[in-house]
Structures are given as C-alpha cells and as structure tokens.
C-alpha cells in the first residue's frame, strides 16, 4: 500500500492546523466568531450536499451514480464528515480491510473485520513475518490507513489478537 496521503486526509489536516491557530487567538470574541462561522459553513455545505444526494438518488440509476461518486476519496471523506455517505459504514470498512489484506499477506500477516459498532472497527489481527522487526507496526499502519481512508468517521480500531500457535514466528499486533 502506498504511503501517499489521500486528498481528503491532506485537506483535513490543513483544516485542523488552521483550527488550532484559531484556538490560539488571544481575543476570545474573535475565537468564538471564527468558530461559529466555521460551524455555519459546515452546516450549510452539509445541508446542500444532502439535497444533492437526494436528487441524484431519485434519478434513474441514481443509486449506481451515488456509489460511483462516493468512490472519489475527497467526496467520500466529505460525505462521511457530514454523516451522509451513501455506502454504509460497515460496507466501506469491510472493503478497506479486504484491500489491506493483500498487502498484509505479502508481509506474512492477515486481518479480518469482526464488527463495526458505533464508529469502532473491531478487528482480528494475525501475525507478521518473523524476519521483519517493524512488521507489526507496518501492518498496523497499513490497516489504519486503509480504514481511515475509506471511513474517516471511524473513531477507533480495536484489535483482537489471535494467539500464536506454539513454536511459530507469528507476531501479533497489540491494541494501542
């Protein structure tokens, strides 16, 4: 999996940096007005996007169009941010885990999604190659990147470690 940050992630990080700068304003009034302005713009965009999705969905083949639109990283992230993504969270997280699996398999590891509940992805994580000391961190990063890219509204990932078979070189990821 490439280490390249997705467009939504890059833009979201920029926004977070700017929000931190706003929080550092000495003038409380300026801080409050700026935050209120940001919230109003986000609310406006969310309402408009929801109407757009409803209009597209009402068209012939609208559901197919929505799925195609939602494949775009930036659009997907924004729709997730507003809680109006047309593809259910469970489906997006499962697809992300599936995409991460081929990369993990090439490093001697594996992962399976056990559930997604209230924004928390529960995973069963299996091993890593015994020859790579950084493999469990590599696997953790790959799974996190895949899931957060597909579903930025996921608030946590909880790995359920599988016990290593006796006499194996299996390395199990630990919960953060």
Detail the poorly predicted runs.
168-176
Strand line-up of the largest beta sheet? 1-2-3
Q: What is Rg?
A: 20 Å
N-to-C SSE string, H for helix and E for strand: HHHHHEEHE
Question: Which labels suit this protein?
Answer:
3 strands, GMP Synthetase, Chain A, domain 3, 3-stranded mixed sheet
Structure notes:
By secondary structure, the protein is mainly alpha-helical. The protein has two domains: 75 residues; 73 residues, Fe-S cluster assembly (FSCA) (GMP Synthetase, Chain A, domain 3, 2-Layer Sandwich). Helices cover 56% and strands 12% of the residues. The protein has six helices and three strands, in the order H-H-H-H-H-E-E-H-E. The chain has a three-stranded mixed beta sheet with strand order 1-2-3, covered by helices on one side. A hairpin with a 2-residue loop joins strand 1 and strand 2. Helix 5 runs antiparallel to helix 6. The radius of gyration is 20 Å and the shape is flat. The C terminus is likely disordered.
Quick synopsis:
It is built from six helices and three strands, in the order H-H-H-H-H-E-E-H-E. The protein is mostly helical and 176 residues long.
């Amino acid at each position: 999996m490439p280490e390249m940050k997705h467009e939504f992630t890059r833009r979201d990080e920029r926004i977070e940096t700017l929000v931190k700068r706003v929080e550092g304003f000495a003038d409380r009034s300026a801080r409050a007005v700026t935050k209120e302005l940001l919230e109003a713009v986000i609310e406006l965009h969310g309402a408009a996007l929801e109407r757009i999705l409803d209009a597209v969905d009402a068209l012939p083949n609208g559901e197919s169009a929505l799925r195609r639109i939602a494949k775009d990283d930036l659009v997907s992230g924004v729709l997730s941010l507003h809680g109006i993504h047309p593809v259910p969270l469970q489906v997006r997280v499962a697809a992300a885990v599936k995409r991460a699996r081929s990369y993990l398999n090439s490093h001697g590891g594996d992962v399976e999604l056990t559930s997604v509940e209230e924004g928390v992805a529960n995973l069963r994580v299996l091993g890593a190659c015994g020859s790579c000391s950084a493999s469990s961190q590599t696997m953790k990063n790959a799974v996190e990147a895949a899931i957060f890219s597909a579903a930025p509204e996921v608030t946590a990932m909880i790995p359920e470690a599988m016990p290593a078979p006796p006499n194996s070189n299996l390395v199990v990821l630990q919960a953060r």
